[in-house]
């Protein structure tokens, strides 16, 4: 009986059963089609839902950006930033990042990271091992003696952005292919800030000993440059034979920035290796300059390497003068502001008094700018290079008493507004190399090329960290978008021959990867990433770890590994 009921049920699975009963066959067909339609419709709804969610996320990001723009226009917008109060509760302390990471910041940070990947992969594809890439010709060129400048300059940027695979490839090239025994004349300054600085930063970040070994190798080859009667270094040297000299166009003089911008790197190298010879060479330069340091703290751009005295020449915070003043402040910070480095701070404060004597304002827009000076004559000209000054002033304002601190920080914000308008005043929204200022008509671009420089976004990063004011992020984002629009090519980034018409040059400067993109990335990152409490940037944006320095000149030992890699 049970077998009979089982057989009865199985007949419904037989196709012949339905052929004999057409009504049931039709009903079965209708059921099958209905079920199929329901399943297909649910899959379609799911796909459409996913698409809608994606669109809503994009719309949310867009609305958040619009909301930010509205807050800026209604609250702390462009010109009102100039009066941002020093009396706010932050009191210029570094911005807290306890709050959740802003989704707009995340989005923008990823865009900058993608730009870095585009620049890097283009270099790898077309110029691997060369100093720099020519994106239009799609080939490499050696502008710094064939030292792989872009690779070394990019190490810490790759590390900070969490680009592990790219960092490893760069590290392996340094270990296996970077060779300094070359019969080439190279700039002591450029090699120090890019190569020595880049290697030391990679060492401080990763703890990989190969970077310290290579930094010591190249620094030993540079040391003969300091063997002068005064200790003021010659600015060029042959890496293979150690023959130092100055370029002919300086008339035998050494350049202020080139001679006074090695302190950070060589002091750090002595700290990391325990060998004092590097620190002794560069600190002797400062001791020599202190002997005749002027009351206003402003030095001409040419120095005699035999006597140590200044030659009659221009005083400027732009080209050939700039980073000397920057390193007076940063050597004090890198030494952890201890008694052993107090004289650096004192010299810097003296120089800042001199800087204020060069400050002027335009009419009718009241743009604040820094003049150049030759003898007793002022020249109403300011380089984009001098746009590092707002960031430097913000960073250095901490060492002053409250009233002076507020004055210095206010000057920083005013100069940052001028530098941002260097960009906004041109058709491409990219800054020219320098600007001239005129009574009654504000400013005009002088030398009109743009070579992807970082100084303005550098200052915006400092000011944003110290105030938390998102206006600075907006300014930086606008500059980044202008680079994307005008400088991005299918094989990298190029500068502009003329910011007025957008004509392109054919060089992707290594500092675009080392500085410009790094500062932009940090502008949209939590301040805990490369905290100012633990790190100081060299003038090529390579972060170096701050180490306590005792009055005797000795330092606390650095740990082998001091920074965990941060994923972008």
Describe this structure in words.
- The active site is at residues 190, 322, 433, 455.
- Ca(2+) binds at residue 539.
- This is alpha-1,2-Mannosidase.
- Residues 46-73 form a coiled coil.
- The chain has 568 residues and is mainly alpha-helical.
- Helix content is 50%, strand content 9%.
- Helix 5 packs parallel to helix 7 and helix 7 runs antiparallel to helix 8 (209-222).
- The protein is globular.
- The termini are far apart.
Highlighted features:
568 residues, mainly alpha, three-stranded antiparallel β-sheet, 50% helix, disordered N terminus, disordered C terminus, Glycosyl_Hydrolase_47, glycoprotein
Question: Low-confidence parts lasting 5 or more residues at pLDDT below 50?
Answer: 1-6, 71-92, 558-568
For the sheet with most strands, the description reads:
3 strands, antiparallel
How many helices? 18
User: Which radius of gyration do the C-alpha atoms yield?
Assistant: 30 Å
Q: In terms of quaternary structure, what is this?
A: single chain
* Beta strand %: 5-15%
Which sequence of strands runs across the widest sheet? 3-4-5
Helix content: 40-55%
Distance between the termini: 72 Å
Broad shape: globular
What would you call the structural class? mainly alpha
Q: In total, how many beta strands?
A: 18
Cofactor: Mg(2+); Ca(2+); Mn(2+)
Membrane topology: Single-pass type II membrane protein; Single-pass membrane protein
Pathway: Protein modification; protein glycosylation
Active site: 190 (proton donor), 322, 433 (proton donor), 455
Compact summary:
Its cofactor is Mg(2+); Ca(2+); Mn(2+). This protein is mainly α and 568 residues long.
């Amino acid at each position: 009986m049970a077998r009979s009921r089982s057989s009865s049920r199985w007949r419904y699975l037989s196709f012949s059963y339905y052929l004999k009963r057409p009504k049931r066959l039709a009903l079965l067909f209708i059921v099958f089609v209905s079920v199929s339609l329901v399943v297909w419709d649910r899959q379609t709804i799911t796909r459409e839902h996913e698409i809608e969610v994606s669109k809503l996320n994009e719309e949310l990001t867009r609305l958040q950006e619009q909301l930010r723009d509205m807050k800026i226009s209604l609250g702390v917008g462009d010109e009102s930033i100039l009066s941002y109060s020093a009396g706010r509760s932050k009191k210029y302390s570094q911005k807290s990042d306890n709050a959740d990471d802003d989704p707009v910041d995340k989005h923008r940070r990823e865009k900058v990271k993608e730009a870095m990947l585009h620049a890097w992969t283009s270099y790898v594809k077309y110029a691997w091992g060369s100093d720099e890439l020519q994106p239009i010709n799609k080939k490499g060129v050696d502008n710094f003696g064939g030292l792989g400048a872009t690779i070394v300059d990019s190490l810490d940027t790759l590390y900070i952005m969490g680009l592990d695979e790219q960092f490893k490839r760069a590290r392996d090239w340094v270990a296996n292919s970077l060779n300094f025994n070359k019969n080439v004349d190279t700039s002591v300054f450029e090699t120090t800030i890019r190569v020595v600085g880049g290697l030391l930063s990679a060492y401080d970040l990763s703890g990989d000993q190969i970077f310290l070994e290579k930094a010591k190798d190249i620094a030993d080859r540079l040391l003969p440059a300091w063997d002068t009667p005064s200790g003021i270094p010659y600015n060029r040297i042959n890496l293979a034979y150690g023959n130092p000299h100055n370029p002919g166009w300086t008339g035998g003089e050494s350049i202020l920035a080139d001679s006074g911008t090695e302190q950070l790197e060589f002091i750090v190298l002595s700290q990391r290796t325990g060998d004092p010879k590097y620190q002794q060479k560069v600190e002797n330069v400062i001791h020599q300059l202190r002997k005749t340091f002027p009351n206003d703290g402003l030095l001409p751009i040419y120095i005699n390497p035999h006597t140590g005295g200044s030659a009659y020449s221009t005083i400027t915070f732009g080209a050939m003068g700039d980073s000397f003043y920057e390193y007076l402040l940063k050597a004090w910070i890198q030494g952890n502001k201890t008694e052993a480095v107090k004289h650096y701070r004192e010299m810097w404060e003296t120089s800042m008094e001199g800087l204020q004597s060069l400050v002027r304002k335009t009419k009718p827009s009241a743009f604040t700018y820094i003049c150049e000076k030759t003898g007793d004559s002022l020249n109403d000209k300011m380089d984009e290079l001098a746009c590092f000054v707002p960031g430097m002033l913000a960073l250095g304002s901490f060492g002053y008493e409250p009233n002076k601190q507020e004055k210095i920080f206010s000057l920083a914000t005013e100069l940052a507004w001028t530098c941002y308008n260097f960009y906004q005043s041109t058709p491409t929204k990219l800054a020219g190399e320098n600007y001239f200022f005129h009574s009654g008509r504000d400013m005009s671009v002088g030398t009109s090329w743009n070579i992807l420089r970082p100084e303005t976004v550098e200052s915006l990063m400092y000011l944003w960290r110290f105030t938390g004011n998102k206006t600075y992020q907006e300014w930086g984002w606008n500059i980044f978008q202008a680079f994307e629009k005008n400088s991005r090519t299918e094989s990298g980034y190029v500068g502009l021959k003329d910011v007025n018409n957008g004509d392109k040059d054919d060089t992707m400067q290594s500092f675009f990867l080392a500085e410009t993109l790094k500062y932009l990335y940090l502008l949209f990152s939590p301040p805990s990433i490369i905290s100012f409490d633990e790190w100081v940037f060299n003038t090529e944006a390579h972060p170096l770890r701050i180490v306590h320095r005792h009055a005797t000149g000795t330092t606390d030992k650095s740990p082998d590994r001091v920074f965990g890699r941060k994923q972008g």
